[in-house]
Amino acid sequence: MPAIIVLGAQWGDEGKGKATDQLGQNTDYVVKFNGGNNAGHTVVIDGEKYALHLLPAGILSEGVTPIIGNGVVVDLEVLFDELHEMTSRGVDCSRLLISSNAHIIPSYNRLMDQANERARGKNQIGTTGRGIGPTYADKMNRIGLRIQDLFDPESLSFKVEAALAPKNEIFTAVGMDPLDPALVTAELLSYAERVRPMVCDVSLVVNEALDRGSTVLFEGGQATMLDIDHGTYPFVTSSNPTAGGALTGSGVGPTRIDRVVGVAKAYTTRVGEGPFPTELDNEVGEALRLKGGEFGVTTGRARRTGWFDAVVMRYATRINGLTDICLTKLDVLTGYDTIPVCVAYEVDGVRTEEMPVDQKGFTQALPVYEELPGWSEDISECRSFEELPDAARAYIARLEELSGCRIQSIGVGAGREATIVRYPLI
Ligand code: GDP
Ligand code: IMO
Ligand code: MG
User: Are 242 and 227 a contacting pair, CB within 8 Å?
Assistant: First the structure.
């Protein structure tokens, strides 16, 4: 029984929620390993839409045990709001487990996120404002608060005081109100007894499950190009959404992983600031945004749009050791005479098929396009590769060739059923 990592291959919002849900229907465990409620993962079941932020999308599959791993940062207010929303919609959340080592997003880090963005002025990152960066910074700075701290009030109070003191100075300096550490501590403690039954050693639970032959999916938030190490720094998130992050974020070794699935759109989108070589900052891009419904699930922001970038995809294949690509939103590309695909970049007049070594090169990269024939037939009802028009099949074949990885499944609509599975994984 396999252990499968599902992660974003581009700049996020590729359809990881749908992919996890689709694969997760025959899965025993779904482990979220990075990020927090900066994510917005959509699943559509029988026409009903679910938007998940902190909870793994696998929570929607019957019989699955959803797990929040140690690599996740947890906003407790959001956790219980989302649990309440899902439970009231009839979703069974009773099996949810959460790592005792996961870090907590305290309210002051939401404010820090906003203060930091304000201070960056025109160099702002366009974060989701959820306190993600400051919480991971506290973790690295070893002044973070962990889930297990909720069960030691004295030590929690001490930690909050120590972490908050320098932040209050910043809040005051930028004209924001300082926070009272006693109130922050009391708010956090108010969640303790509700969290307690969910707390576990995620590494132990997952490794024992794998020993028993259970199927485990690891669901990534964000994406390869937003990775703190491998993404378009500083326009990135503050975690490792790549395959390595699935291991450190859940306490599982690399030898236990069977497949690594990169989810990618048949074109490209990005939310927030930062370089994007194939961006269509024009009416073609606007039309693609409307056609693809490219508006953020978390912040509602319009997503920037552009053509498929095979340099990015090859990079994602390499960084993550992808075994499979789950290609989404092919249906959105119906109706173009030809579809440009970026096969290389031109940097300072020189053609390169690899990611430029430095960020400056990437920022200046001009896309080199190959025009592939389009198709006009509605493909949303296709359920096998053979049913797709010739040009759509040729598009897939060329993307596979350029990406250096097989395309395992093809999305032709937002619904759970609107997927062409070429190679079943479970
Ligand atoms: P995630 O963050 O990677 O889970 O992706 P989001 O949920 O933020 O954004 C993906 C959007 O595309 C959602 O609205 C999905 O319902 C939708 N979607 C996913 N796969 C497909 C597909 O194959 N076709 C279409 N038309 N929509 C899709
Ligand atoms: P899912 O899981 C798309 C982007 C933000 C910003 C940058 C840093 O739905 O694919 P952060 O709040 O993480 O410090 O913001 O990363 N970003 C995402 N973009 N999808 C996401 O998640 C994202 N999570 C963060 O827009 O540019
Ligand atoms: Mg999303």
Answer: yes
Beta strands, E only, 53-102 = 65-68, 73-74, 97-99
Determine whether the shortest distance from the Cβ of 128 to ligand 2 is under 6 A.
yes
User: Which is the catalytic residue, given 21, 28, 41, 227?
Assistant: 41
Report which of 228, 270, 241 is spatially closest to residue 14, judged by C-alpha positions.
270
Whether 13 is catalytic is: yes
Structure tokens at 147: 């889930």
Q: SS3 of 217, please?
A: strand
- Closest protein CA for atom 18 of ligand 1: 414
List the domains of the chain with CATH numbers.
Answer: 3-99+199-260 (3.40.440.10), 103-193 (1.10.300.10), 264-421 (3.90.170.10)
Q: Say if CB 380 and CB 331 are below 8 A apart.
A: yes
164 CB-near residues (< 8 Å, 6+ apart) = 106, 108, 179, 181, 184
324 among known catalytic residues: no
Side chain identity, residue 277 = P
Distance between CA 62 and CA 89 in Å, rounded?
A: 14
The CA distance from 52 to 32, in Å, is 12
Q: Does pTM top 0.90 for this prediction?
A: yes
Consecutive 10-residue runs of the chain (426 residues): their mean pLDDT? Answer: 94 97 92 97 96 95 95 98 97 96 98 93 94 98 98 98 97 93 98 98 98 97 98 98 98 98 98 97 97 91 97 98 98 98 97 95 97 98 98 98 98 97 95
Q: Output the CA 200–ligand 3 centroid distance in Å.
A: 27
| Closest ligand (CA of 380) | 1
